[in-house]
Amino acid sequence: MPLFDLPLDQLRQYAPAVPEPADFDAFWRATLREAAARPVLVDVRPEPTDLRLVDSWDVTFAGFAGDPVRAWYTRPSGVDEPLPVVVEYVGYGRGRGLPHERLTWPVAGYAHLLMDARGQSGQYGVGDTADPHGAAPGGPWPVTRGILAPEGYYYRRLITDAVRAVQAARALPGVDPQRVVAAGNSQGGGLALAVAGLVPDLAALMSTAPFLCHVQRAIEITDAAPYGEIVNYLAVNRDAESAVRRTLSYVDGVCFARRACAPAHFAVGLRDTVCPPSTGFAAYNQYGAANGSAEPVARTMHVYPFNGHEHGDATHVRRQLRWLAGVLAEPAPAVPLADGAALVG
């Protein structure tokens, strides 16, 4: 795939005025308040993995509307002290898989909570979490379920699950609740970014090729799925454009990025048609801009000029490992709690 988006010098300055609803903060505050009314941990049980160096648990926590959400909790075997925890979110069409599939973070010495994606099992990986809220009007794909109104939209539920995963991680044994990191790639990167905008006291964010950023532009410049699924829906439902654009404005990663406080590590591939680089830069360039602090938030962006959605692969993971070790070795900065900043603790 050749370069198709803006030149890199323009990307580094690209900070579009992505519109956000007047009730954006109120919408998410009410959504998360309702979820927080329930105890977060439902069940934690040991999960045999046949691996000697890590221990795993099958975790169930209460997500949106109290729905049970599954996750794997894994940590280095024989380590008793509280550890920083990486809460990881999976890509589009994936489930949590099996506990031995993602071992980078526990092998590196971290606790690791991998959240399942409700109702997405079967396309790329196995999942165990149902989505019992499929009645709202919209298309058949996750990104179009309930897309005609924000209240019934699929990503309202999934983002709420993602915030609750942080709360569940903090309640797990062997976790240092002051050192929680949100991480993910593609859809997972978009969820991690949303969490960074909704949870004020994360220790760090790692968001790679984030999905759901500057969505209005994405659906105009790429036909690749998942954005292409929105395009296909609108190609049939021609009178739905206004309602769809309004719904998407409530989950746009740029809006969450503006409110974020945590040190952040981003990456994009310049040949990425799945999550175009301008959409990731739109979030990165406005990260922390409206979080209530007079000080800029520490952030870094890695660019892979010759890569697409695979970005930097193992090279990038190594950069994440080194960056996170440095961030967690430093004292955590004070978190501003001004109105309009991050929304939940």
From TrEMBL:
MF terms (GO), sorted A to Z: carboxylic ester hydrolase activity
Organism: Micromonospora craterilacus
UniProt protein name: Acetylxylan esterase
Binding site for substrate: 92
Biological process (GO), any one: polysaccharide metabolic process
InterPro entries documented for this protein: AB_hydrolase_fold (IPR029058), AXE1_dom (IPR008391), CE7 (IPR039069)
Annotated catalytic residues: 186 (nucleophile), 272 (charge relay system), 309 (charge relay system)
UniProt domain Acetyl xylan esterase: residue ranges: 1-325
